[in-house]
C-alpha cells in the first residue's frame, strides 16, 4: 500500500499564500451579519474609551487631589513623614505648577478640608471602578455577539464546502485522498473555530486600543509619548519575524495532519487487505513516520509561538522602566520633557499607558500566531472551494426529457491527462432496449466508456448522445436521473435497509420499496433480518454478505426505474450460486432497458445484442457472441484462454464462467 499524499501536499505548498487576501475573503462571510458587527463595534468603542480613560483619571487623582492634599497643611495630620522630606522633593509636588488645568473631573481646591478632599478623591475612585465594571460588561457583550456571528459564519462555510465537494468531478477525488478532504472539514475548520470568537475581538480591540493610547499620549505629552514608544520598533521586528516563522510552521503542521488523516482513513478502510498480506508492521512504521512529522511540525510551530510572549514581555518591562526612571529623574530635577511639564500624576499616567500599550501588543502578537494557524487552515479550505469541477453544466444546458434509450458514441476520444488518450475513436450505437457487453483486458478503457455516459468524465473529442441530445447540452441531474448504475463494489449507507433502497427516490412509499426488493429478489432475505426493512446496516453494509449487498443495490436502482442501465462487473465478486440469484434479478431489471455491461460472466455476454472487445482504448472487434467466435480473432483467443466449462447441477444447463482478470 503506497501513499502519495506527500507529493500532493508538496504541490499545494508551491502555491502563493496571501494573508491579506485570505482574511479579506473570510471576512466577506460576515456581511450578512453586519448589524451584529455594528453592535460589536459600538461596544468595542465604548470599552476602549473607558480603558483609555482610566490611566488619565488615575493621574488626575494624583495631580488634582493627592498633590494639593499633600501640599496642604492638613496633610501633616495624615502623613507626618512628609515633614521629613527634603525641600527639593516637596517643591515638585506643590500645586503651583498649574496642573489643575488638566483636571476635567473637578478643579482642586486647597481650601478643602481633609475629609472633603478624601471624599472627592473617593468619588473619582468610584468613577474609575464604574468604568472598569462597564468596560467588562461591554467586553463580554463583544465576545458573545462576535461568537454568535462567528459560529453562524462557520456553519455557512461548512455548508458551502459540503455543497462544493458534491459538485466536484470524480477526477478531483482520484487525485486527492478522502482523508485529506475530510481534514478540511475537521482540523482546518477547528483552527478557525478556536479564534473566531475570542481571537477576532481581542485583535480588533487591541488594534483600536493601541491607536487610541498613542493619540492620548501624544495629546498629553509628545516627548513622553515618544519615550514610551521607544521599544515599539523592536516589538514590531520580533513580532513580524516570529509570526512569519510560526505561520510557515503551522501551515506545515496542517498539511502533516492531513497526511496523518489520509493514512489513517486508508488503513482503516483496507484493514482486511493489510492483515491478509501481513503488512501491519510496514503500515505502522509508515504511520509513525507521518505522525512524527506532524509532531515535529507542531513542536516547531509552538516553539515560535511560545517565544513571542516572553520576548514581548521583556521589551514591555524595558519600556516601563524607561518611563519610570526618566519620569522620576525629570521630577527630581524639576525640569520638563520637550516643553511639557512633568508631574507625578503624568508619570503615573504614562506608566499606566505603558502597561496598557504593551498588553495589547503582546495579545495581538500571541493571538496572531494562533490566527496564522487559522489562516493556514482557511487557505486550505479556500483552495478546496477554488477547485474547479472538470464537468459542469453549460450556461444554456436544458433538462433532458424522458428518453427511449437510443445511445450513440461518435468518434469518442477521452483522456485523464492531457496528451495521453485513454479512448481513441470509439463508435457505439445502442438501440432502445439493447444490451451492449464490453469485454477486454484490464486497462483497456472499458470503465472509461461507461463513465462517459453519465458524464462523470467528458470526452476530449467526439460526442455522446441520448436520443440525439448531446450529454454536454443537458443538465447533469436530468441526465443521471435516467441512468441506473450497479457497480462491483457496492456502497450501502449506515441507515435502514428501506432507506438504502429508496435512496434514489426519497419519497417512495413502503409498498414501492417492497416491490423493488421483490424485483431484485431481495425481499425474502430482508424479511429474515432482525428488524426486516427497518434493520439499520453497519458501515458500507457490514453484516450482509456481498451477494445480499448487491441485491439491495439492484433494488435501489430498480426503484428509480432508469431508462439506461450500467452494470460494471456487478457479479464478478460473488460465487456461482449467488451469481445466479443476482443474474436472475438483473434479467428482470434489464428487460426493456438500454444496458451497458462490463462482464466477467459469460451468461451476460452471450445474451447481449452487441459484444465489444476493447483493447488499448479502441474497439477492435464488434458483434454478437456467436459471430465473434466464428471470426476466431481476439475475442476468440480471450474466450479460449479465460473461459472454462463447468457443470453446476443436473437441472441446470451447462454454464461457462469467465475467470476474472
What's the tally of helices?
A: 24
CATH superfamily of the largest domain: ABC transporter type 1, transmembrane domain
Number of domains: 3
What general outline do the C-alpha atoms trace?
elongated
The CATH topology of the largest domain is given as ABC transporter transmembrane region fold
N/C terminus separation: 20 Å
Mean pLDDT: 75
Fraction of helical residues: 55-70%
Which class of the largest domain in CATH terms?
Mainly Alpha
Largest sheet: 6 strands, mixed
Report the structural category: alpha/beta
Strand content: 5-15%
Strands, count:
14
Uncertain segments: 1-16, 73-79, 88-101, 644-661
Strand order of the largest sheet: 8-9-10-5-11-12
Which CATH-level-2 architecture of the largest domain?
Up-down Bundle
Rg from Cα: 38 Å
Describe the 3D structure.
With 661 residues, this protein is of the alpha/beta class. The protein folds into 3 domains: 5-386, ABC transporter transmembrane region fold, CATH 1.20.1560; 393-482 and 563-661, P-loop containing nucleotide triphosphate hydrolases (Rossmann fold, 3-Layer(aba) Sandwich); 491-561, P-loop containing nucleotide triphosphate hydrolases (Rossmann fold, 3-Layer(aba) Sandwich). The protein has helices at 5-13, 19-27, 34-71, 87-90, 114-167, 170-175, 178-185, 187-196, 198-220, 222-228, 232-269, 271-276, 280-333, 344-386, 446-452, 476-480, 497-501, 510-519, 523-527, 546-560, 576-590, 602-605, 625-631, 634-642; strands at residues 336-337, 340-341, 407-417, 420-430, 435-439, 461-466, 469-470, 483-487, 564-568, 594-598, 610-615, 618-623, 643-646, 655-658. A hairpin with a 2-residue loop joins strand 6 (461-466) and strand 7 (469-470). Helix 3 packs antiparallel against helix 14 and helix 11 (232-269) runs parallel beside helix 14 (344-386). The relative contact order is 0.08.
